[in-house]
Design a protein that fits this description.
- A hairpin with a 2-residue loop joins strand 4 (98-101) and strand 5.
- The longest helix has 20 residues, at 4-23.
- Helix 1 (4-23) packs antiparallel against helix 3.
- The strands form two sheets. A three-stranded antiparallel β-sheet has the order 1-2-3.
- The protein is 47% helix and 18% strand.
- The protein has 169 residues and is of the alpha+beta class.
- It is built from eight helices and five strands, in the order H-H-E-E-E-H-E-E-H-H-H-H-H.
């Protein structure tokens, strides 16, 4: 059995992966996300799969690569709620992915190590396929495009330009 501390790290990492894939945020934007940036939850009925919890988050200009703020509404509110219920750091100014203190996320090195371990378990060659944590953003954007979300809406949602999406996807 893994020590409690290790289990908590793994649970935080699991929710980070799910949030990254659903929000299409850049890794650095998520690492700087504070509880005050989680603006609203809304449960919606999904006839096929039951209820879903949407979440509205804001990416502040000072934490965005392109220095522009944006609001994101997406699935995955339950992942934020799970983190909140387990965390000791839930004040508005505390980081969502805080682990040892309110203003310090789980070590970036540990995020990368856990991601590498997951890929190894799945027998994915990260090097040859050029996969990294940032790939979760690409996965989320690709899923939106496959779901026939307008390229304009995806660009706005992801905080990038239509030309960047057209160039890479």
């Amino acid at each position: 059995h893994a020590p409690k501390d290790e289990i908590e790290k793994r649970l935080l990492f699991r929710d980070f992966v799910l949030i990254a894939a659903n929000t299409c945020c850049r890794v650095g934007e998520l690492w700087q996300l504070r509880w005050s940036d989680v603006l609203k939850y809304e449960e919606i009925k999904d006839g096929k799969n039951g209820a879903k919890t949407l979440v509205k988050i804001q990416i502040r200009a000072e934490t965005s690569k392109v220095q522009k703020s944006r609001d994101i509404i997406c699935r995955g509110g339950e992942y934020f709620q799970r983190i909140y219920s387990r965390s000791r750091f839930t004040e508005p100014d505390d980081l969502v992915f805080a682990f040892e203190s309110a203003d310090k996320i789980l070590a970036k090195k540990e995020f990368y190590q856990m991601f590498s371990a997951c890929m190894k378990t799945l027998e994915v060659d990260m090097k040859s396929r050029k996969i990294s944590l940032y790939s979760l953003r690409h996965f989320g954007i690709s899923c939106r495009l496959r779901a026939q979300v307008s390229v304009f809406d995806v660009a706005k949602f992801a905080g990038t330009s239509v030309s960047m999406i057209e160039k890479y996807y």
